[in-house]
Amino acid sequence: MTATQSVMLLAAVVVSLPGLIHAFQPLFSFDGNSTTHRDITRMAVLRKTAEVCRDIAASEGRDFSLTIDNSLSPDKVQRACLSSGNSTSLLSTVLFQTSIANMYLSNANVDVVYSLSEEHHFDDETFQGGRDVITAGVSAVKASVKKENFVAGRWILGQVCHTLQDFYSHSNWVELGKTAPYSTLIKPDQPLENLAGPTVPTCRNCTQGDCANNLLPDLLQQGLLTSGYFNLFSSAKPAGKCSHGGLFDQTSKQDPIGGISKDDVGSSHGFLHHNAADVAVNATVELLEDIRLAVGDKNFLQLMGLSQSSVLCFVIDTTGSMSDDIAEAKRVSFNIIDSKRGTPQEPSAYILVPFNDPGFGPLTMTTNADVFKASINKLSASGGGDIPEMCLSGLQIALTAAPPSSEIFVFTDAPAKDAHLKSTVTALIESTKTVVTFMLTDVLSSRRRRRSSQSVSPRDISQSDAQLYRDLARASGGQAIEVTKSGLSGATTIIEDSSASAVVTVFQTVKNPGKPDNFTFNVDGSSRNLTAYITGVPSLTFRLISPTGVSQSSSESSGPLASSTKTGNLHRLSLNIGNQTGSWQIRVDSNSPYSVKVTGQSSVNFIYNLVKPHEGAHGDYSLLEGRPLAGGNASILVTVTGSDTVKVTDVTLFDSSGPSEVNGSVQTVGSGIYLVTFSGVPPGDFVLLVKGEDSSSTPRSTPSGFQRQASTQIKTSSISVTAQVNNTNIAPGTTVSIPFTVASTTNGVVNDSASGTFTVQANNDRGYTSTSPSSITIEAGSGGKANGTVTLAVPASAASGTDVTLTIGAQNAAATDINFAVLRFFVTPKVTDVTRPVCLVVNTSGKCSSSSSLCASSQWVFVANLTDGVNGTGLDSISIRQGNGTLNTSTAAGAGGENITVATYSSSCCSQTVQLTMVDKVGNVGTCEGQLRETTTAAPATTANTTSTGGRTLSVSHSLWISMGVIFLWK
Ligand SMILES: *[C@@H]1O[C@H](CO)[C@@H](O)[C@H](O)[C@H]1NC(C)=O
Ligand SMILES: *[C@@H]1O[C@H](CO)[C@@H](O)[C@H](O)[C@H]1NC(C)=O
Ligand SMILES: *[C@@H]1O[C@H](CO)[C@@H](O)[C@H](O)[C@H]1NC(C)=O
Questions:
Q1: Per-residue pLDDT at 957 exceeds 60
Q2: Where is each Hemicentin-1-like von Willebrand factor A domain found (predicted)?
Q3: How remote is the CA of residue 117 from the centroid of ligand 3, in Å?
Q4: Among 347, 507, 819, 903, which residue's Cβ finds the most Cβ atoms within 10 Å?
Q5: Does ligand 2 have an atom closer than 6 angstroms to the CB of 86?
């Protein structure tokens, strides 16, 4: 899987870390031949996604030729899934790759948050506890999906997968000879059986370090299930019990010595590592199937992130003077909706957040374009008046609702009243990599007065008010467009540009203070429709120069290289690239601040995540949310998307405001993923620039070098904010306390002689009650650190699957430096309904002729009583999973007072089996199967859950015999 060389490099980088993991390796395989949680999760997601697409294709009568095995890539799967896709069309797998990365990063995070929780890892024979973790998680995933909150759903799903996968590494399931998953773990209404009791000995000493035969033969003969004990600090364990094993597991040093883990090929039972990993993949596929049945195919594919298009997200000021702007937002969004409906470019969801004063919200998030249209139609500009608006509050809720890497458009003509949220909003922009573009109408310098009687209205945006919006735009990689109300329709072209397929950023920079400069960017053969955006003062001029030296100035609106338009402070250039790939230049002449952005459309792009080496008990890396430390090392996981033939050659952190440029050392870790390490990143605001080569023959010219740039700025900080979270699930009606530590750092390490006072802000996106110290002081002689506690109260009414993002920010006294911890919590009530809906077959009747050519003219009927029982939450949906007939339902009361749904399925005799899927209100899935017996007269069936083998299979083999006979005759 990974080249030995790169593994050596990787091992050299991490050798200083404590390498004491007690689970499948979370992200990276140190030996180059072990399967990680990342691999297992990725394979399972790709396989299940492909299977769902295959089933959908079959039901629509389309071909689906992809072979489903463990060698799938996101590009292959997404291409195969696109019903209208073909190999030459533009495809962006950025969203799919981002979703997969979020799932494996949240999976890996379990080793950080729950490092000492035995049930999250099925250690210490905690089978009931481990299954409860899975049950609660699965229920929360289903609840999130039901609310179309796919971001939260993915995050929880990643966590659940970790626990499920660990079972196969930490228990003796594969040693018992099992090759299929232990389905009982995801069926909470089935008893956990054959567990070795608390006093049953399970292991004996390993002999001279060889643990191949340390499980007691009796245990294996009786088929009893056990798992290894694990403890970092204490060697105590019940007599005769197996340990996890490994250098850091103290219990494995006590009789019985050794362990049974299969975490990697070097573990105590490493010889079974691949068997365990294979079953773990299949178990994860089985879990995904359960979720798919509960939420339906369409929602399931959205949960997996299988989408070509991003969301369309507007945050709109609805005060009195905004009616023109609202009309324009409506026009442009309707235009996008109407032109893309039914195509793969149709926005995957729509988000609308109105704000004014004192209110903001509610947030509308929907996948239904008509619901969005209705919401935007309902907006009316009213009230407000002479006060600034709650712009950042509206933006904050949009930022937490939108999937990562979305683009948000904010329309306003007023300064923000809630500018104190700037640092929280900045933290959210950085952690979600959202691009925020502001459509500012009537900024003070743009002359037009709304109130002729007054010289300056408080609603007008002054240059300094506009700077707040410019700063946020810059941090996110968006733009601050300043236009007159009448010019707005010219500027909204950029909204339509951004909703095109597979938009990539080729180059972007902001110069503040402005000075004349020359920018070069590389255009590769895979990129189409290059567009440049330049914003700045009216006196700004520029010149565009092609690789062959042809040039065009800003005064030519149409020339050999581009056609351009100017609206407000925005120049938009459509580049005419022709076959001129290579190095292009833009020379800007301005001494005022300006920005330059060049985008194109290409399948080749990248995603990235800041990661950090684990502190403490577990090795490997986990997601870093917050800023990397100035002067320290930064690690970034880069995944190339859109091509299996692309190679990354250079990754650079590039500071547009200064001379700093830091080159990363690039190591491949397989599957198009690279771990890039930067050492000694100086203070500054950086953007990530990735360069590489595509070795496949592109439609145009030679193998071309490409460059892509991340939108969001990466800022370093000398403040470290870490929160100690040991549970991310919160029950409604409870309050959690989150201890956190602020430290002052120098060159990436805590400066233990530092002192100082820091302003602390804790904000959450749900408006839940939260307390926090307003400041925190690092006293001299306290080791450079100070501790505080934030509390967060979740109301009793919070619904299952709700996510809460809590941002804890600390700013230095001079207000020149800030850092954050971004924490996600999920509302997961105790699951009370764990039983699946059941069915009792009442009757199967009908006469089917034995001649298959006459099948269409005869009918059969299947009647069953479906119920979720007296204590269940009740049936939520019933659907036909297999069969072409029609289903009618009616309700009745059962003997015990439970609600019964009478399902009557009738079908032609051409299809003689039926499978119904029943889902209750919390997502437990039951199936109900029926079939017409292979007789010509009616035969009442008496049992529920008849399997679909039996008569049907017989008839298939019967007809096979007949056709074989025919073949023999023909010979
Ligand atoms: C990895 O392990 C598998 C199964 O044990 C073995 O077939 C393969 O040769 C190993 N590969 C490397 C690079 O060690
Ligand atoms: C494939 O897509 C390209 C670009 O969208 C289109 O021009 C071409 O006709 C499509 N080919 C097929 C076979 O559909
Ligand atoms: C297991 O090994 C330990 C250490 O060598 C030894 O003290 C103990 O007696 C052994 N137990 C058995 C049952 O042989």
A1: no
A2: 312-485
A3: 29
A4: 819
A5: yes
